[in-house]
């Protein structure tokens, strides 16, 4: 069973002579519970590919299926719904809501899902403990280190129990020790919960943790390596 | 609602200075409106009372058509009897019968046209301030006394002083010549040059004899407890005169239409000023929210990426707008209502107001009191609330167009 399937996906920005072909005929299947890393130089299409899979942007052509649903044919509302229920995001620049505490940032997604407050509170506490932020629930993002903020972002992505978590350069702003701890956490969550991860990265350490490594260049997947 | 409410409230305090400035602008405008609208309406009340107190009264009974064409022949039969009946009902503060005509007043070589009014001297002070405005001499002594009081400007024009005689020549009700020589016993100053220049009063029975009126008169002036209770006053008058189909009852708005129109014009200019004030506040709110949306575009992109619908973010923005507006309104209404209450207790006066009131025998004019009325209190804050909530939609509409990826790229 595949969590993600892409068939002949193209993405072009601009028109005519100014057209930039960010993705060219991408065919890809990501199986359930896989831990995939996308690597490649800047401008190779990693982030664009993640955005397409996550329903944050639409392909110019081709088909994208996530959790058995055709993402490329969805309207804005349906895309919001699939992002809310089936996909978790971890962004490069932490991207937490600054005025909410760690717990409230995690609960925010659950509130969008309509989960009652008692369950939200309990679940957010458990998940923050799982990512190693026990006792830091009520701290605001500004009171947390970069690594801790990224763990909150991971907890927020996890809390909706998504089929897929997409992480765009999650370690780019972290020091090597913190980055390693974060990747170990992601890998642990992958092993424990069977959640599918697709991570774009430049970081060789992150690539080293991947089960499958996809190398991209000029909008194409040029290499697909099964590691372990 | 919990997190959204917390989010909205905390977002307000991201930029404390901006929030306080905006809330302060709302509060300041609210104070002005909460205080000034009741004072404005209080001023109208004083204007109406002052104008009606001089002569017209709160209502009058007349013959149909007399108000439009005041002909001497169009008189109410047995007017004094009707006035007595009204007084006996004890429902009215003042009831006075009047007969009115025009005559040429002469003294020496000078002659001037003037309105001559026959009044019941004992009762006239209950419906008119003129008896108390006599600055020289005295007011009329009895209902059939052969004497006259005239306005100060008229006395000046005729070059007469107290005790001098005035020759009166006019047309009687039956077409005969109405003529008399009456001594001037009092000179009044009403504060209105127009009134003082052409107005004179003589006792009612003297007027009826000179103008061949018999027992008829032209008007019965009535004063109720307050001008605001005019509806109940008119209802009571209709009830008391239901057996008379030869008369009409006129409220003050029909008696002095110019006064009502003047107030309407003043109200319009007042509301234009309030509209400008509200517009300034509204633009201040709009500026705050446009800045807020621009600053937080990236954050809105994140919310969209996490699965939030634009509608929910719009709701958040509207909640922030409502909270900010309510904060300003609550501060403004609290301070404003305290000020209104204080002014209601001590009154409001400008320099010279008390002297003016004393001069024109209108103690009610000495201080201005706000008109306490729920509508007057809420109209300003209500307008600000509605207007700010409408303009808050302008930045909110931007959110509908946001795409998560582009929004998250915003710095």
Q: How would you characterize the overall build of this protein?
A:
The complex is a heterodimer of chains A (228) and B (411). Chain A is α/β, with parallel strands linked by helices. Chain A has helices spanning 46-53, 76-85, 102-113, 117-130, 146-159, 176-193, 204-209; strands at 2-13, 20-31, 35-39, 61-66, 69-70, 87-90, 164-168, 196-200, 212-217, 220-226. Chain A is built from seven helices and ten strands. Chain A starts with a strand and ends with a strand. In chain A, 49% of the residues are buried. Chain B is built from 16 helices and ten strands. Chain B has helices at residues 2-12, 16-54, 79-88, 121-124, 152-158, 193-198, 204-210, 230-240, 252-255, 257-295, 297-305, 310-346, 353-359, 374-391, 393-400, 404-409; strands at residues 59-62, 94-107, 110-119, 134-137, 148-151, 165-171, 177-188, 199-203, 219-223, 248-251. A six-stranded mixed beta barrel of chain B has the order 2-3-8-5-7-6. In chain B, a hairpin with a 2-residue loop joins strand 2 and strand 3 (110-119). The mean pLDDT of chain B is 89. The chains are: A alpha/beta (228), B alpha+beta (411). The interface between A and B is medium-sized, with 28 and 23 residues.
What is Rg of chain A?
17 Å
Cα radius of gyration of chain B in angstroms: 31 Å
Helix content of chain B: 40-55%
Poorly predicted regions of chain A are: none
Q: Which word captures the global form of chain A?
A: globular
How many helices of chain B? The count is 16
Overall average pLDDT of chain A = 89
Percentage beta strand of chain B: 15-25%
Percent strand of chain A? 25-35%
């Amino acid at each position: 069973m595949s969590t993600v399937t892409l068939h002949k996906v193209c993405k072009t920005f601009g028109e005519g002579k100014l057209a930039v072909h960010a993705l060219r005929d991408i065919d890809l299947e990501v199986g359930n519970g896989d831990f995939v890393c996308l690597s490649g130089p800047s401008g190779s299409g990693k982030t664009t590919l993640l955005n397409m899979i996550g329903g944050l942007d639409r392909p110019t052509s081709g088909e994208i299926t996530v959790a058995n649903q055709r993402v490329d044919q969805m309207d804005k509302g349906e895309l919001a719904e699939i992002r809310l229920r089936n996909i978790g995001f971890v962004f490069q620049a932490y991207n937490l809501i600054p005025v909410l505490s760690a717990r409230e940032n995690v609960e925010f997604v659950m509130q969008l899902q309509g989960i009652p407050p008692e369950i939200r509170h309990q679940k957010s506490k458990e998940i923050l403990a799982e990512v190693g932020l026990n006792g830091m629930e009520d701290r605001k993002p500004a009171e947390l280190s970069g690594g801790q903020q990224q763990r909150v972002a991971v907890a927020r992505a996890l809390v909706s129990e998504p089929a897929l978590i997409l992480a765009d350069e999650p370690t780019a702003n972290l020091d090597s020790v913190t980055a390693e701890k974060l990747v170990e956490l992601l890998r642990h969550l992958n092993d424990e919960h069977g959640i599918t991860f697709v991570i774009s990265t430049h970081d060789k350490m992150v690539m080293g943790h991947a089960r499958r490594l996809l190398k991209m260049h000029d909008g194409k997947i040029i290499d697909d390596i099964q590691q372990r | 609602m919990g997190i959204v409410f917390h989010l909205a409230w905390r977002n307000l305090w991201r930029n404390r200075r901006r929030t306080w400035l905006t809330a302060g602008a709302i509060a300041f405008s609210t104070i002005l409106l909460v205080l000034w609208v009741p004072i404005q309406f209080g001023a109208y009340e004083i204007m109406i009372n002052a104008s009606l107190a001089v002569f017209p009264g709160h209502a009058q009974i007349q013959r149909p058509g007399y108000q439009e064409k005041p002909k001497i022949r169009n008189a109410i039969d047995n007017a004094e009897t009707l006035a007595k009946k009204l007084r006996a009902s004890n429902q009215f503060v003042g009831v006075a019968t009047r007969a009115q005509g025009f005559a040429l007043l002469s003294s020496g070589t000078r002659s001037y046209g003037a309105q001559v009014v026959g009044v019941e001297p004992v009762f006239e002070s209950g419906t008119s301030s003129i008896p108390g405005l006599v600055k020289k001499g005295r007011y009329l002594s009895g209902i059939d006394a052969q004497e006259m009081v005239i306005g100060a400007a008229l006395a000046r024009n005729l070059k007469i002083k107290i005790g001098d005689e005035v020759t009166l020549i006019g047309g009687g009700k039956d077409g005969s010549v109405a003529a008399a020589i009456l001594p001037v016993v009092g000179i009044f100053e009403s504060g209105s040059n127009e009134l003082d220049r052409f107005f004179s009063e003589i006792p009612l029975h003297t007027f009826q004899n000179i103008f061949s009126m018999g027992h008829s008169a032209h008007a019965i002036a009535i004063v109720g407890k307050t001008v605001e209770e005019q509806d109940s006053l008119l209802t009571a008058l209709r009830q008391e005169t239901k057996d008379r189909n030869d008369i009409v009852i006129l409220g003050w708005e029909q008696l002095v239409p110019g006064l009502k129109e003047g107030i309407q014009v003043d109200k319009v200019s007042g509301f234009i000023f309030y509209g400008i004030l509200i517009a300034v506040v509204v633009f201040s709110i709009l500026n705050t929210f446009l800045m807020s949306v621009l600053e937080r575009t990236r954050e809105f992109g994140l919310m969209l990426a996490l699965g939030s619908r634009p509608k929910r973010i719009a709701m958040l923005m509207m909640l922030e707008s409502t909270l900010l507006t309510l904060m300003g309104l609550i501060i403004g209404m609290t301070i404003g209502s305290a000020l209104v209450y204080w002014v209601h207790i001590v009154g409001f006066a400008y320099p010279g107001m008390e002297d003016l009131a004393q001069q024109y025998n209108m103690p009610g004019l000495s201080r201005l009191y706000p008109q306490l009325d729920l509508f007057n209190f809420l109209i300003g804050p209500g307008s600000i609330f509605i207007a700010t909530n409408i303009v808050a939609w302008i930045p909110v509409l931007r959110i509908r167009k946001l795409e998560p990826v582009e929004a998250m790229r915003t710095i």
